[in-house]
Structure formats: structure tokens, C-alpha cells
Design brief:
This protein has 45 residues and is an all-alpha fold. Helix content is 87%, strand content 0%.
Length: 45
């Protein structure tokens, strides 16, 4: 993949970084939600 990035412009790289940041934020949010739900489930037991 690194070789494929060489042909990208700075703007393309910035857009890619923004997309990756957004995806990571979404995954972390979902992970936090799942952990919270698991904790709530264990507390009910």
C-alpha cells in the first residue's frame, strides 16, 4: 500500500487521513458503547 500512496497529492493524503480519523473515531465510539453495554449487563446479574 505504501507505494500506492506515493502518487497521491497532498490534498488526497489529507482527505485520506481525515477519512481514517473519522473511521477510527467511529470504531472507538462503537467499542465504548459495547463495553458500556457489557458492564451494564454484568451489573444486572
Amino acid at each position: 500500500m505504501g507505494k500506492d500512496l506515493q502518487s497521491l497529492s497532498m490534498k488526497d493524503l489529507q482527505n485520506l487521513k481525515q477519512q481514517l480519523d473519522s473511521a477510527l473515531k467511529h470504531m472507538r465510539s462503537r467499542n465504548n458503547q459495547l463495553m458500556y453495554e457489557s458492564i451494564q449487563c454484568f451489573r444486572r446479574r
